[in-house]
Specification:
- The chain is mostly loops and about 80 residues long.
- Helices cover about 10% and strands about 5% of the residues.
Length: about 80
């Protein structure tokens, strides 16, 4: 396996896209980035993560709390794992 020759944060004119994460928000909003609040598109698929998200007990039925999304005619839900 060939190791990557360059490690760390390197920015150059030959890069097409950058993947960035906001660490700290300043006093003003950034238009198109921090001014609107968009929910996550997909919810958790594993039963333990669904319990953690909604603070459920072990005896609660996880199938009632699956995050569903609209796809026109019907609502889609993931197949729950474990």
């Amino acid at each position: 396996r060939k190791r990557k020759s360059v490690r760390g944060c390197v920015v150059g004119p030959d890069l097409a896209t950058l993947s960035l994460v906001l660490i700290k928000k300043g006093p003003e909003e950034l238009p198109g980035l921090t001014d609107d609040n968009r929910p996550r598109r997909l919810g958790p698929k594993r039963a333990s993560n669904i319990r953690k998200l909604f603070a459920l007990e072990k005896k609660d039925d996880v199938r009632n709390f699956v995050v569903r999304r609209d796809t026109g005619k019907r609502k889609k839900a993931p197949k729950i794992q474990r």
